[in-house]
User: What shape does this take?
Amino acid sequence: MAKSRAGLRRLQEELRSLEARAVEARKRQGKPWSHREAVKEAKRDHGGGKLDARRVGEWLREAGRAPRDPDQVWALVQVWSAWAGEGPGRQEERTWRHLVDNAQPVPERGPDTTEDNDDLVAQLKALLHQEPSGASRHHWYPLENGLFPVLADSDAARRYFVSLLVESVIQTFGNEPARFVFVLSVGSRGEEGQSFPVYSMWSHHREFVAWADHRHATGMRRMINARLNMSNAEGLARVLQDLVESGQTMAGWRWEGKLGFGPAPAPHVVTYEPAIRRVLIEHDTAAYADPEEYDEKVTTTSEALRYMCAVGNRPAPAITSFDRFVGNRPLLQLTTYLLDQRTFDFARFRVLRDDPETWNFRYPEVEAELTRPT
Assistant: This one.
């Protein structure tokens, strides 16, 4: 039950944050912004069904109940997103449905509820037992994790973050072309009753994250100092816009960032082409759970990050052949972990310092289990 309450809190945080951005925009435009108005548009334009304002209030209350119908939530999200000028895409729909699913009360498990998954895990562990350990004297390093708190998860904050990442790519790779993947999710942190959004990023290119982190820390100090002297949201938006403009040391560059801002970890592909002065950052929505669908069969760190998000975000296992895992012990360990634990843990990844696309995945618990005398 604790897990379902945590899922409900996460859903409530995302809904409240979206509503706040939507209401702020409607107030600036002098338009109605009540729950009743949002429900009316949701039912008229997005198939909101039996959604009503009372039900929306129940979802948002501190001790509220989880929504049962993801279609109603998605209808409401589309209205609030349109009010905020954000316009959700298909990948956001999957994210919101995932949030609703995780918010549901956990039912009592019958004796056969996990039988299929347990069987998959057992077969993967048997394969691991047959694979060579792959131990080496290489120096492995963890992924770099950057936490980027923002004052509000607004359009201005998101544009600022995209420009920050683009600038970091240019500063990190210079004249060397690059193509790699990082993972992004949106969470929240709080203390003393206050909560604020945090963009969390994992990457095997440590300098890329470190540069962005340093730049962001400098920018946040400027925003906080400015906010002490500004009492309205428009003033804060101007500060964020100033940061975007001042941070763009990429005059003459073509760049585009299409990021998936949501609570579920999402992979993003960076394509850096200095010869033609172009940077592209795209949310990867392919979600391939079959290693054969990947060009390098999940032997690179970038593909492993994509694979972890694809499998980890699925409600049920999707393994059709175990032959795909033979000879790739890191992939075996990663898949075993995902199906065994049903959670994300990017801190278990390891990469080589001089070749960050070479990866490993730590699952010492299963290693101990396999080597334990029977």
